[in-house]
Design goal:
By secondary structure, the protein is an alpha/beta fold. The protein has seven helices and twelve strands.
């Protein structure tokens, strides 16, 4: 288990504290709708951090060609219909490019700046010159509005606490309560202002094209040279 990451509850556990059993149960949210509206029909998609395929499956159903990447072989066992690659995100080098690179699940907020930089470099390395990178970022009140609870349609998700641990990083504690089981997950997350986020993208050779949702949690970024050239 990585330092600062932990989890409890039934099921095999990944290096970042996620329970495979829990991730198999998580329902699909609005993510596939946001992604489909932002990319060309039939696009090739590199999904970084696919987990058990919660978003992978609906993307395949919508005609997108998905390569699913996760560092957990136990997670990838549950991904059906997609090409799968078992690898940490920040060291991935497939030697090919895609129409779309997807970095969801707030992974851009990794507590370790080297991991964040590695992830964004991987995004840039694998996006085609005419392609785009879709990134999911935290909401503005993610770390301050705690505790908070929501119903995800299958169980209750509670963000219990956000505890500062130094260097601008918080230790986040989440609890998932389902009718037959309870899981917790502890992970490190670094809040990023909009300027900080955009500067980190620029350092990796990416620039924001548009914020896709009103709350600015979903972002489409393009290779820098395309933005500077004013290309669509």
């Amino acid at each position: 288990m990585r330092e600062g990451y932990a989890g409890t509850g039934p099921g095999a556990r990944t290096p970042d504290g996620c329970s495979v059993e829990l991730y198999k149960r998580l329902p699909v949210g609005h993510e596939p709708d946001v992604i489909e509206a932002a990319v060309p029909a039939g696009a090739s998609v590199l999904e970084l951090g696919s987990g058990a395929g919660r978003v992978t499956r609906p993307l395949l159903d919508r005609g997108l060609a998905v390569t699913a990447v996760d560092e957990s072989p136990e997670m990838l066992e549950h991904v059906q219909g997609a090409r799968t690659v078992c690898s940490p995100i920040e060291t991935l080098d497939l030697g090919e490019t895609f129409d779309v690179v997807l970095l969801a699940s707030f992974l851009v907020h990794a507590g370790d700046p080297q991991v964040r930089r590695g992830m964004l470099r991987v995004c840039r390395r694998h996006v085609g010159d005419a392609g785009c990178v879709l990134i999911q970022r935290e909401g503005l009140d993610w770390h301050s509005d705690v505790p908070r609870t929501r119903d995800n349609g299958a169980g209750t998700v509670r963000i219990v606490s956000a505890t500062p641990v130094g260097d601008g990083v918080d230790s986040m504690l989440c609890e998932y309560t389902y009718p037959d089981a309870t899981w917790t997950q502890t992970f490190l997350s670094r809040p990023l202002t909009r300027p900080e986020f955009e500067n980190h993208l620029l350092a990796a050779g990416l620039a924001v094209d548009t914020y896709l949702t009103e709350d600015e949690t979903w972002v489409r970024a393009l290779p820098v040279r395309r933005v500077r050239a004013g290309q669509p």
